[in-house]
Amino acid sequence: MPNVLRHDSIEEAPDNEVDVELQSPSRLVGTHANVVPLSSNAQSARLFYAARFVNQEMPMVNREAPLVQALDPEDPDGKSFEEKFGERVGAKFFHDDDGVVESVTEDAINIKLPNGEKRSVGIYHNFPFNRKTAIVNKPLVKPGDRVKKGQILASSNYTDDAGTQSMGINARVALVPYKGFSMDDAIVVSQSFADRMASEHSYEHDMEKDKDTKFGKTHYSSLFPTKFTVDQLDTLDENGVVKPGTVLHKGDPMILATRPKPVYSNAAHLGKLGKVFRSIRSDASEVWEHDYPGVVTDSVNGKKNAKVVVSAKAPIVLGDKIVIRNGQK
Fold it and tell me: Which pTM value belongs to this model?
């Protein structure tokens, strides 16, 4: 007789009394919990934390597939959950039997099948998410390449080049006291580890166009001629919006704009009105304020707003959260 769970206890029961049979324990939890290695040995609260941390993951510049992976007990090929979930986090695979790559663009990989039919596999090119990051595909094939079923066509910034989910780095860890800095839940990391922990960020800067806000490089330069250098202004179009492909450094302008300067009764002091009205508009520009450089991946000058999207590789800083895959942070 099989072992069953009945009334919160494990006991034996005949087959005709079994209501539900699970093929594996992995079906008890969701997909995010299944990528936690040795999940059966984790406390339930820690497993919950680990599953939520997957949602918060920032793509790493030096990402690596984990050395310890969680095996899918139901996969006939013996794959891990990390290998299976690579496609869910952006990797692109070829699902027809055979084909030849015709072209590779920023948006698609186009493949011709032996029977003359064509397949277009869409890929992402700096597609921003709602908060701080984006998804990017890296094509791994070129025109003329012959591809087979199951072959990877493009990795993502959440996978390695084999298409395995890679949402962190492998670190050498030692649990030792270190000058008092490793007490309680604190850990000490080396400088080389900190350098490897750089992550890929995507920032959106949006400015609404209303009746009070004025845009334009000429308009802005006439009011603030010495605010930015000639080289900085050359990176902007005539509307005062930075051009795609521009490398931004701290203090560089992204959107030039002015707004009316408020005049308060106590600030006027009546005798200072002349000085106040010499410059009746204030600077409302958006500038790049980070210490590390960024690359403008897209800029839009629409009817209702101006938007700039900037991609950057950000180093680890004070306040960043580092987590271990089984839920500790």
Answer: 0.82
